[in-house]
Amino acid sequence: MALKATVYKAELTISDMDRGYYATHHLTIARHPSETDERMMLRLAAFARHASDTLEFGRGISDEDDAALWQKTLTDDIELWIELGQPDEKRIKHACQRAEQVWVYTYGNRVEDTWWKKIEGQVCRFANLHVAALDGEQFAALGRLAERTMRISATIQDGELFLANGQDDIQLQFRMLQGGQ
Question: What is the CATH number of the domain that holds 123?
Fold first, then answer.
């Protein structure tokens, strides 16, 4: 019998000074059985960094043709494709060919550097690819914010993301491996 996803609810209030975007999103997040709290919260952080009225969670882990998050036009063209972790070169190529912009958020205790060195030569040709690394300590801190029902405020300024839930607050600084902020 297959395990079912755990449903989380989040009220995410975003103040993005870099883009001039201010909104509150009421989100339902399905956490795959193999996904950790930290990874799920990184999806939420990525949502905050790229938030729009049309950004939505994809099936990601459970469907190879879906992104972790994506934004589509009314004609179903993909404007933004967001991946998490260390996807292989084939998956990145697939995303870059289908979407206008592709973001990969990688994380770990420097394992992302080994992964990046391995595939950089094959994917650096994609001008629409942005790769951002989050260190292991900041990634681990994301797990502290996870609750079945969450109220999170996200403030973005000068490329830094601050997340707070009233008890904990964390600052995320992404190290760009390719592309800009």
Answer: 3.10.640.10
Of the candidate ranges 13-17, 29-33, 93-97, the one whose mean pLDDT is the lowest = 29-33
State the Cα–Cα distance between residues 130 and 160, nearest whole angstrom.
Answer: 16
* CA atoms of 80 and 99, how far apart (whole Å): 6
Half-sphere exposure at residue 145, Cβ-oriented, CA atoms within 13 angstroms: 32
Strand order in the sheet with 169-173: 21-31, 6-16, 149-157, 160-164, 169-173
> What values do phi and psi take at 28, rounded to 5?
-110, 125
Cα separation of 119 and 87, whole Å?
A: 10
Indicate whether 1 belongs to any domain: no
Does the global pTM surpass 0.90?
yes
State the chain's mean pLDDT as an integer: 91
Q: Please tell me the total count of domains within the chain.
A: 1
